[in-house]
Write a structure and sequence with these properties.
Largest sheet of chain B: 6 strands, mixed
Largest sheet of chain A: 2 strands, antiparallel
Strand content of chain B: 15-25%
Number of helices of chain B: 10
Low-confidence stretches of chain A: none
Oligomer: heterodimer
Number of helices of chain A: 14
Structural class of chain A: mainly alpha
Number of strands of chain A: 2
Radius of gyration of chain A: 20 Å
Largest interface: A-B, 26 and 39 residues
């Protein structure tokens, strides 16, 4: 094993040890949420960074996944895993449908379509009272259970980390394969990709559904973590927040979603200093602003550069990252 | 034998008829020149054949099969490849990847192969990367494989686009002004490359403005004017055709 992998593993181990050292339940809950956000941001890295497709509506998939799993488990009394799988399948289908406008539209126009999609889903959640509980919310969602008792927040942390690792694995495998090359070709020049024999519609369908599944799984896990759902968690601003995570993390880097999801979720929490609570959102927005200006490529490439320096790897001769 | 045939092919843009009832044939294994004054419909014809633009009416028949209305990637899969008048490369991918990605249509591996990292996938990767490298060698870009296209001189960008077009293993290659903007050395090289394509059994439709190029390489010429076929024949024949001279130079005032 080379030095770089060793350093990465040490950092990973240190991260995974946080809930063992810090027993503050709120901190662990926020870390759980950060991991869920990282799943969604990882989907956006694939969708936007790899394939060049914009979505400002992924809070909708987060919401669809959350309500789907909550409703399925509540109504049929099935185990949580069944709820999560049905959430993923539903998001797959709706993600495929949402990819259809991308066959004709791109850039701003596609963004508008995804914003409208997010608003439609949100409106349905608020108004379909009998199914979702409307603005009063959905109560009494079953938590994830092991050995007959509800999972702790620390255990949830490890579960979410494992799911995120799986998502990272799938995304990376795909990005480094011929499929990833095809997606990047679609991003760089769609017409040239088509005439080079690449079925661009099929690739868009694939990447939209993949990112929808990631968000749907994150939503489903969120439902069973909080055991309470309210439409406020799935408003338009959340979609923009997911995009901010992927950009701050590094939209062109495989670790961008993970690092961005963690950073953008945790930074506001760290700024909740006693006596200054009312300013924390302003402070965190400012932090995001500064990060985007200082590091337009995101945190992940700088993070990798830092690791390379620690490992003594020359950037020029070192292994290239997926661009 | 014709590898491709158009029948009454027509394309309208609003009131403008860019290609008007065009019927012509591209003979197999030959280089066919498609010439005509600016705006005579040459690029539109290539766009119609490659499926980039839908035809308003008429037909395109390739190896006896109607391909009108096919999506561009299907046209490419059937063996028709093209380059663009305005070079279109994948600018954030390396020179090698630009060609490698055009081998995607050769893959039999599916998503499951990708996720488990199957043997089939790695052997396909190996074969296709090798083929892409061979094509870079053919156009003289092998030593630039890891560069980004923006670091290539203009002429080489065109060679890269031709290499990418060859990566789909076409039987028919549509070249839209391959020598445009090239310096003298590059011009000679691209002419040589087009000749070599014929030796590789690839039929070529060549849109070109430089008569020196057309004269040197084509077996057969089709002349367009206002979207219609004006004349057809060998270069020597059309060079003397009074209608062709008139279209290019204007009518002589007597």
């Amino acid at each position: 094993m080379n030095r770089k992998s060793v350093i990465m593993l040490v950092i990973l181990a240190a991260f995974l040890a946080i809930p063992l050292v810090d027993s503050n339940q709120y901190h662990i809950y926020m870390l759980d949420r950060a991991l869920l956000n990282a799943m969604i941001a990882s989907g956006l890295v694939a969708l936007t960074g790899l394939a060049g497709q914009m979505s400002l509506g992924h809070a909708a998939f987060y919401g669809i996944g959350a309500y789907a799993s909550a409703i399925v488990t509540k109504t049929f009394g099935v185990p949580v895993i069944v709820g999560v799988i049905s959430a993923a399948v539903l998001c797959l289908v709706i993600g495929m449908l949402l990819s259809i406008p991308s066959f004709k539209l791109s850039g701003f126009y596609l963004s508008l379509v995804t914003i409208s999609f997010g608003n439609i889903v949100w409106t349905v959640i608020v108004n379909w009272y009998s199914l979702t509980g409307g603005s009063l919310g959905l109560l009494g969602i079953q938590p994830i259970r092991i050995a007959g008792r509800a999972i702790t927040r620390t255990e949830f942390f490890y579960l979410a980390a494992a799911v995120l690792a799986l998502i990272y694995f799938v995304t990376t495998r795909m990005a480094r394969s011929y499929i990833g090359r095809g997606l990047r070709a679609v991003r760089d020049d769609e017409m040239a990709a088509e005439t080079a024999g690449i079925d661009t519609k099929r690739l868009k369908l694939l990447v939209f559904s993949l990112s929808a599944i990631y968000a749907g799984i994150a939503g489903a896990l969120y439902a069973h973590l909080s055991t309470f759902l309210s439409p406020e968690s799935f408003v338009q601003a959340e979609s923009a927040n997911f995009v901010a995570m992927s950009v701050v993390g590094g939209i062109r880097h495989m670790l961008g979603g993970t690092i961005g999801g963690l950073a953008v979720t945790m930074i506001p929490e760290m700024l909740r200093v006693k006596g200054w609570e009312i300013y924390y959102l302003m402070g965190s927005s400012l932090a995001i602003l500064v990060l985007v200006i200082m590091l337009p490529n995101g945190l992940a490439p700088s993070f990798e550069k830092f690791i390379d320096r620690l490992a003594g790897i020359d950037r020029k001769s070192g292994k290239r990252q997926v661009k | 034998m014709a590898i491709l045939k158009t029948e009454n092919l027509t394309r309208r843009f609003g009131g403008l008829v860019a290609v008007n009832n065009l019927s012509f044939e591209i003979p197999e294994g030959k280089i066919t020149g498609l010439i005509g004054p600016n705006g005579s419909g040459k690029s539109t014809t290539i766009n119609l054949i490659s499926g980039v633009l839908p035809a308003s009416s008429g037909n395109v028949e390739y190896m006896g099969k109607r391909i009108t209305g096919y999506a561009p990637h299907m046209v490419a899969r059937m063996g028709i490849s093209r380059t663009y008048q305005q070079i279109r490369l994948f600018e954030k991918m390396t020179v090698l990847e630009n060609v490698y990605v055009a081998r995607n249509l050769m893959y039999k591996s599916n998503l499951a192969d990708v996720l488990i990292g199957s043997k089939r996938l790695s052997s396909e990767d190996k074969a296709n990367e090798k083929k892409a490298m061979e094509l870079l060698e053919l156009v003289g870009l092998a030593d630039k494989a890891d560069e980004l296209p923006k670091n290539l001189p203009y002429g080489y960008r065109r060679f890269l686009e031709i290499a990418r077009a060859l990566a789909t293993e076409p039987k028919l290659l549509l070249l839209d002004e391959p020598a445009a903007g090239m310096n003298r050395d590059e011009f000679m090289e691209v002419m040589d490359l087009v000749r070599r394509l014929r030796a590789m059994d690839i039929s070529v439709l060549l849109v070109e403005h430089t008569m020196e190029f057309v004269e040197a390489v084509v077996d057969h010429v089709v002349v367009l004017n206002f979207g219609q076929k004006l004349a057809e024949g060998t270069f020597a024949q059309i060079e003397k055709d009074p209608q062709v001279i008139e279209a290019y130079l204007g009518k002589e005032e007597l």
